[in-house]
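Mods, move this if it's the wrong board.
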Amino acid sequence: MITLTTNNFGAGSVTLKDYQRSSLCVLNGKITVDPIHPDYITATRLELDLPSDFAMPRSAVSTAILVSNAPIYRFGTVLHCWIEDNKLCLEKLTAWDSFGFYDIHINAAFVTRGYRGAFSKTPQKDLTILNAGDLFRFNVYRYVETDSIVYFIATFYSFPTYYDNGQGPFTMQLSGFATDVHVEIPLIVNGDTIMQQQKGSMITIGTFENGNLTFSYPENGKTMGGYNSFFNFFAVRG
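Not the wrong board. Structure tokens:
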């Protein structure tokens, strides 16, 4: 774990789970942002000071996910995220500032910028949904596991909907996923529904623990879930 105590947007200290090597770093955690804080208002981007001994002083661009406090659907989107001069930098996006405090979820891998060496492919690992049935069925997924980190991206052909299945909670039970991963992730649950004047995607939050994914929908999230729901994350093991 690393704790970041200094930033340019008026937030409190932030604790991130970390894997650090000079060529690859993975960070997991959540940053809460107050959009009416004077420091946030004047910032052009969000910066958090990393420890002086952080393994990677600068990186190529990675991603984070902004989850707003918009009623019910918590609309959000992807943000650019990178390491520069020993700072964790995030794109500032003000589209949902009027709804108050918002969260930025970082479940990202960072690689060195301008790398020109050889690349080797990490083998994929097969997963099985133990309680597939009508609720959960992969459309496409890729799962990579090492001794230290995992990467998991999945889109779904079948996924619970609020309209048909209610608020939950729901649990997707997996065989083959690392049981020592504990991570909170945004789930993009927009399905095929686009609301009038919608900005961003509908999001709910899920947790991987003991090899399973658990999540719920907010009350009255009537159009959430279903076909094409997806997630995409890196996570540190242990």
